[in-house]
């Protein structure tokens, strides 16, 4: 028996249909963001130096009681923008993309641990996904709050080190 279930963050289906094929950049440890990736237009009353739009999506399938899935961690060129473009601010924005990757790996870890239950799998998988997204948003907000959107240089340096350590700690789940 084969089951298929696709879950995306609420805006991703709309985003994907509106995007050009080369709009999404998938997270890759060898590719750091550059200001040329930021092609969006800031809102008229924007007060932030920059904005980085990241997305996590997952497609699930079941065959013979085994869970299969594809996780995607992406950055949107058309939804991301920069008003003040320098290397320091870019490093902060890369931090946001790296936090999204942390949670792609955590999602992979949680799904790998999941035991298929024919009666509850839809609810179980939705809960795993939603809890992971809630955790991701909480960390993104904490990152901005504690660094004051990168203004606090000491906290910014601490956070970039913390993000790097977390990516390393979860490196065993990078092969999603």
From TrEMBL:
One of its GO terms (biological process) is proteolysis. Keywords: Hydrolase, Protease, Signal. Residues 1-18 form the signal peptide. InterPro entries: DUF922. GO terms for molecular function: peptidase activity. This is DUF922 domain-containing Zn-dependent protease.
